[in-house]
User: Fold Putative DNA binding protein from Halococcus saccharolyticus DSM 5350.
Amino acid sequence: MTEADPSPQRFRDLMLDAEPGFEQVMVCVFDIQRHETRTYRTLLDQPDSTVEELAAELERDRSNVNRSLSTLREKGLAERGRRLLDGGGHVYQYTATPLPEAKELMHDTLDEWTAYVHSRIDEFGEETV
Assistant:
């Protein structure tokens, strides 16, 4: 299975919820934490945010926000750009993957996981030589 596979407990929780919300589906499909979904949603509303701006908006420590952004980038849910500063140097700015693309990524990730489960089901009862 791939790194983005839903954890068994999260998948069970999702199945038991009659109407799971966006964040609950993201947590399950991408195997991320709720605070990472909050970071993603904040980035949707405030593109090109810096870590400092996000930390203030989310009321979280900068190091925690950095970890959330790393996870989101690994999962394909955020991008990092660099902006040059007038006085020299640069600052990183983060933008969320647009919602339509994120939804497609959710579908693709879930389809891959489902195909894996189907292949495992097909293997049941086969003898190993």
Q: What stands out?
A: Residues 9 and 15 are 10 Å apart (CA to CA). The longest strand covers residues 78-84. The two ends are 23 Å apart (CA to CA).
